[in-house]
Every structure is written in structure tokens, then in C-alpha cells.
Amino acid sequence: MGIAITKLVAFLLTGSASMLAEFVHSVADCSDQILLLIGRNRANRAETVEHPFGFGRERFFYGFLVSVVLFSVGGAYSVYDGIHKIIHPGTLTDPYVAFGVLFISAILESFSLRTAIKESNRQRKGTGWGSFIHRAKGPDLIVVLLEDSAALIGLAFAFAGIGLSVLTHDEAWDGGGSVAIGLLLACVAVVVARETKSLLIGEAASPAAERTIVRALEDGPEVERVIHMRTVHLSPDSLLVAAKVAVRAGDSATTVVRGIDAAESRVRAAVPIADVIYLEPDLYQEAKADETDPAIRVVQRALEHTAERGEQPAPSQPGSPRPAGPSEPTGPDPSALAARWGS
Q1: Strand 274-282 relative to strand 238-246, pairing
Q2: Separation CA 335–CA 186 (nearest Å)
Q3: Residue 103 lies in a domain
Q4: Which of the 8 DSSP states describes residue 333?
Q5: What CATH code is carried by the domain that includes residue 260?
Q6: Per residue of the chain (343 residues), what is the pLDDT tens digit?
Q7: Residues 162, 289: Cα–Cα separation, whole Å
Q8: Domain ranges, residue 48
Q9: CATH label of the domain that carries residue 175
């Protein structure tokens, strides 16, 4: 919030539309962090009769609200003010005050972005940035990473707009900088809205997590194979798994129940965020398998990947160590959010 106040003072001293856009940008950032923290707190409420799976998706909802704030408060207003400045250029005074504030802001925002990148690198594990943002299950991390990146780019736009205004003695360039910042925020808002909308509707686990779950289910004598499986994120760090598994026709009810319990334990050991697991025993009938069913394709994809890599499920032995499963990209440590309060 300190950076936002500094930018406001710089705007009052210089009359720069780009500095006003940067002030609005910082206010939107601070509002977004408040929304994300509210979402985190509300998501921690206990389950109720009306909400038996808890309130984890509150984090997705508040992440979507972030996109609304970015688009309306940050993007739309900055574009409007920039166009107004282009049509009715004002007088730009003390531009070097603005340059100084932008320089200091860039240093502080760089530290914040470094924290976000460090947190992201812990989870993306070599995947590309675009793929990581698309597959991340935590809106906090998406917002922090994109906002920090947009903050530095926005500062560059503001610097260019004010600099060109000084060089050409045409304040319309300053308005152009404000428009550029507004369009940048609108683009970030669209990306955040798209990703959080997908999470709100219900996203499956990552392919790596799905492979681990299938491998864990079949890694035991109780389950002949996984017939089909569906997963959905109840929150960034909570996963629901529903699968139909094939058992032997001659097994007794007691044997099947014990086998189901053992399979659930293997899944929870391999993928700790799998909090809710529903397994339905059945007899496998290949003729009834509908390969167009996404739930069946998930299993086939997991088995094909395992075969391509030459992996074989280890035999289930009592007391044998279980391999650790992949962790889902969820969200930044609360300290990463706290680092944003400086903006």
C-alpha cells in the first residue's frame, strides 16, 4: 500500500495520467490481495450439512472476483483516463519526480516478483510458464505471478509514456501510457477470469496426479484394474477421487471391503491431497467399455504413459515404503501474499 500512496503523491505533483494509472493499478493489487486472503479464511470453514464437501471453492470464487476488480477498477478506468488525456492533454509538471517514483517502484516490484517466481519454481518442476499457469490449481499463485509481472511491465509503460511526453513536449504520450497500462490489466484480468472460471466449474487432477492414483489403485492384489475414474478439485489442496475398480468374481464381501480400504490407503499415501475417495467394486466386462467416456480415457492415458516409460507397479508388500506422489500446484505460501502488501 505504501507504493500506491507514493504513486498518488507523484500524480498530484506531476499531473501524469500514467502515474494515476499506476496508482489505480496498485490499489487494485492491494484489493486483490485482500480478496484472496478473505477467500483463504472462508475456505477453512468446517463442512456443514448443506455443504458436505466444505467451502474450499471459496478460494476459486474470490480469485474470480480478482479478475473483476482488475478489469473494472484497473483496466477500464486507466483506459478511460488515458483516452481523456489524449483528447484533452494537460500540463505535465516535475516529470523527474515521476521518474524517481517509478524507479523505486520497479526495484520493490522486482523483489516481489522474485518471491513469486521462487514459489512457482518449487511447483512447476520444469514445465513451461504457460502450461504451469493453465494447470495451477491455486488462484493465489496465478494472481500473484501475473500481477507482479504486469506491475513491472506497467511501470515500463508509464516510464515510456512520461519520457516521450518530456522529449516531444506532447502530453498525449502520457495518456498513451495510461491506455497501455489499462489494456495490460484487462489482459491479465481475462487470463485470471478464464483460469478461475475453469476451477470454479471443476477441474480434474493433473495428468501426473491421475497417473499416480491409477498406479496406486492397481498396485495391490485386491484390484485387478481400474475401470474408470473421475477426479475434481474441491479446493487447491483437496481432491475428490471417484473410481470403479474391478475385483475378482470369487472374492467374498469381506475380502472386497478390505481390498477397497487398502486401495484407498495407497492412494492417500501416494497423493496426500486426495481427501475424499469413493471406490465402487465391479466385475470388468470389456465389451461394455465405452472408450469415448472421458472417465475411461483418463485411465487409458495413465496406463499408456506408464507403458511408454516402462514403469511397472511394484508388488504390494506389507510394510513396504510407498513412492511419494506428485504434488499439485496449489498456491503460494502465505508469506508470498504478505510480500505483496508493499504494493
Answers
A1: parallel
A2: 27
A3: yes
A4: -
A5: 3.30.70.1350
A6: 677 888 888 888 888 888 888 888 888 888 888 999 999 999 999 999 999 999 999 999 999 999 898 888 888 889 998 998 899 887 788 888 989 999 998 998 898 899 889 888 888 877 888 888 888 888 888 888 898 899 999 999 999 999 999 999 888 999 999 999 999 999 999 999 999 999 999 999 988 899 999 999 999 888 889 999 999 999 999 999 999 999 998 889 999 999 999 999 999 999 999 999 999 999 888 777 777 888 888 888 888 877 776 655 444 333 333 334 444 545 555 444 444 444 4
A7: 65
A8: 2-201+332-342
A9: 1.20.1510
